Amino acid sequence: MNGLVFTLIGLSLPSITAGIEGVSFYSAIGYGVLITFVIIIVRILSAYGAVVITKIAKRYITVVDVNPGMKGPFILGWAGMRGVVSLAAALSIPVTLNNGNAFPQRNLILFITFIVILLTLMLQGLTLPYLIKKFHMVSVEEDAEDEKMYRVIKHELSEFALNHLEKNYGKALEEQPILKKIADKWKDSKMLTEDTDMTSECKIIYIRILHEQRKWLIQKNKKNDTIDEGIIRRHLHQLDMEEEKMRYL
Questions:
Q1: What's the rounded Cα separation, in Å, for the pair 37 and 82?
Q2: What span, in angstroms and rounded, lies between the C-alpha atoms of 188 and 94?
Q3: What residues have CB less than 8 Å from 112, skipping those under 6 apart?
Q4: For a pLDDT cut of 90, what percent of the chain falls above it?
Q5: What pLDDT is attached to residue 196?
């Protein structure tokens, strides 16, 4: 849809430039560049203004990020490319006034809008990926919350596996020192083991418990819709890797 719109702009641009009155072609370009510069600066200032409001609001309410920093607001401001909405606003200007006279400088407004859209898409759009990589942007809220939830699930998963081992394979746990080591690692919320001298019985028991852990994770995901499914998938992938490793021990 955007491509079609800009194609139509290109087709109508010659008639728009021919209809500009009282202003030279280069002056119209200059107006477009000037307005583009103003729009970019105003948006960046607005982004930093939101930071100021956030710092004031945190005294009275709980905010997501008490210290947004300087990089995030700049990226947010720089990401304000103009597009179809700006063009639609310009095209909504009537061709004639109520008295039948032509709307003054309508073609100039359309041309300036085209310049603004073109410059913001090329200048901001092409440089935005570079700036994001350069600034090393990190989502503090999502990363911290996901990591916290990941540790919680990992602890619960290890606790479940340990209880299942002790309840169903207590005798083997006493007789097999490798299983005892695995249980100790689960107590520390560590899933992987580097022991390579496991007996066939140990492997079978361990793989069965991995299957039970997988079932527990799936049920946990179904019952609690507040947990990010990506966290569950990380644990499932870890179980898959552990089970695959058992095949080569």
A1: 12
A2: 71
A3: 28, 31, 32, 35
A4: 12
A5: 47
Secondary structure, 3-state, the chain:
CHHHHHHHHHHHHHHHHHCCCCCCHHHHHHHHHHHHHHHHHHHHHHHHHHHHHHHHHCCCCCCCCCCCCCHHHHHHHHCCCCCHHHHHHHHCCCCECCCCCECCCHHHHHHHHHHHHHHHHHHHHHHHHHHHHHHCCCCHHHHHHHHHHHHHHHHHHHHHHHHHHHHHCHHHHHHCHHHHHHHHHHHCCCCCCCCCCCCHHHHHHHHHHHHHHHHHHHHHHHHCCCCCHHHHHHHHHHHHHHHHHHCCC
Q: What gap in Å lies between CA 89 and CA 220, rounded to an integer?
A: 49
Is the pLDDT at 207 greater than 70? The verdict is: yes
Give residue 20's pLDDT band: very low, low, confident or very high (50, 70, 90).
confident
What are the tokens at 78?
Answer: 């720089």
pLDDT above 90 (res 85): no
Average pLDDT over residues 32-55: 91
Which residue is associated with the tokens 């103009």? 82
Cα 190 versus chain centre, distance: 29
Confidence tier at 198 by pLDDT (50, 70, 90): low
Residue that wins the pLDDT comparison between 245 and 118: 118
The answer to pTM > 0.90 is no
- 217 and 235 Cβ atoms separated by less than 8 Å: yes
Give the CA angle between residues 10, 16, 18 to the nearest 5°: 120
